[in-house]
Specification:
Layout lengths: L1 E5 L7 H8 L3 E4 L13 E6 L2 E6 L21 H13 L5 H13 L5 H15 L6 E3 L9 H12 L2 E2 L22 H8 L1 H8 L4
Parallel strand pairs: 1-2, 1-6, 2-5
Antiparallel strand pairs: 3-4
Amino acid sequence: MILFFHTPEFFPPLDFWFGLLNSDAWVVLDHVRFTTRSRQSRCRIKYDSSIQQLAVAVKRPCSKPICNMVIDNFHPWRRYFIRTIEKGYSNTPYFNKYFESLKYYIESPNVLLETLTLQTTLWIAELMDRHVHLFCTKDYYKNYPASKVIPILLDKLGGEPFHKQFNHPYYQQKTEPFEKDLSILDCFFNIGAEATAKLLTTCG
């Protein structure tokens, strides 16, 4: 069994999905401390010729485990996210296919950041015809550092960690030059879920 050890992230880029789609199960490292200004609550998109950061607003203090981070629902981050995505991708080939579903997940009244990130990750995976097996460390190892949890789970599940090298693939983006490490949403809107899945199974 190949195990993908990773924290939950907000519409992460292709390297995350390469690991997830090429593993048998995702061990969600959600008992570790939340990292501010990271991919756990932010994603990068291409907006015309510039790069924009889109973020989920979270309540302070931020020195909590990821599983306990609360979304700030009084902050208008949802409106800004949807407006920016619409303006940035409305003329891409697959915008109409995914935008309404994306709005549904963003506008859902979630309280916890992890609920949002897991829901959207499973949605994206489903669009790529992949069922994800989850194992959340918060349910078992609340007081263990990640460095100890990984060997414990490898021994318990009889698996090995995912370790393939990721080579970032090229795909047709809205504008040149080509930008790496953008949210998977960029790939979806430009080439669609099926083509994205094919990229992620051949870029190792």
